[in-house]
Amino acid sequence: MRIRILMIGMLLCIHPFYAHAVTLKAAMDAAVEQHPMLTISKMQIDGAQGELQEQGSYAYNPELSVEPQRRKLNGGGSSNDYYITLSQGIELGGKWGYREQSAEAALEATRLESGINLQRVKVNVARALVAVYFSKRELLWRNQQSLTLMQLNKAVQRQMDVGEASQLDVNLAHASLTQAINAEAQAKQQHAMNVSRYFLAVGKTSEIKNVEPELPRLLVGWGPQSDPVEIALNSRLDIAAKHKRLAQYSAQADLAKANKVPDLTVGFTTGRETGDRLYSLGFTMPIPVLNSHDGAYRAALSQESVKRTELAWLEQQVKLEVQEAAYNHATAMRAVLSVNRIETDTPTPDSIDLAKAAFDAGELNIEELVVHINQILESRINSAAILKQGWLARIRLAEVLGHPEYILQGTQ
To answer: So which residues are the signal peptide here (predicted)?
Structure first.
């Protein structure tokens, strides 16, 4: 009697029901609300605001000096004298303004870098959810494959007991089952790793639980409305942050140059000496003989040049990244479209039914049946891999353009 594998019709026809599905938008919103990196960014902004407040204040406070004296006179007797001095340092060369400019640019750069972290969190959680979604699907398929081949293995063993199957058939069924069990174990490990990475991307610190991801339909015809390179150059926050850092270091170079000009201290003194009233006005200025601050100025100019070069290099990198991402996105969308057409023209359930009917009719032996089972599984996995690459290409394109919202715009 032939082995009747009734479970084949179940293979790969899995449509899981997500009772508590996590949508892509919900995951991104959750990460924005609770990710520790964004909390750190807010603290850094607060620190930069404090630095601006500090640098916006004048460098010197007035100084008050009181010096009482008791003097013995040569002719006998004594005199109670005192001196009171009020002095004020005066910055020359525009140092105050340069310090404030540097701190303002640093604050704006910190705010932009906080925006970069926000975009990075959104992109990372999108990638993580996509990875969980597809690893979960593969795990379900691998589990179904193992169950199917386990039943096949038992059936072949029973047939061998009654003399209707050979040892070669048993060996083939056993090897196929072992391979399927190993693949399922690897899929479990990969899925567990992806779930852990998802929780890290979201910023959750609670106990890791199961995730039921849900992805919208990916629109393959979606694309940016204008030149991608121009969009990126005008939208990328890292470029804007580099501009602000360059402004910060330019102001610091101007400050270092201004520091070569010594500051002036003005002092007014009043006092009493042997009964006489004293008044004096003094000016103090250091002479830059031993240290003219030329080294600090050179160092500041070097840092400014570094930031200028970093900005130019980043702009070149962005152009290359956009070109690569746009090409990969177009290639991935064409592949997704091709797979959609193939699955529409030749639905997988027909292939499964055809293989089952052929085996029941005696047209396929056990070896050929195992090959068909594995081919159906690999076909589904490959189709899912193409769709996954489409999602990753869409996410990457949105990332390099500086618009994480494009991830959701190109879906339905």
So the answer is: 1-21
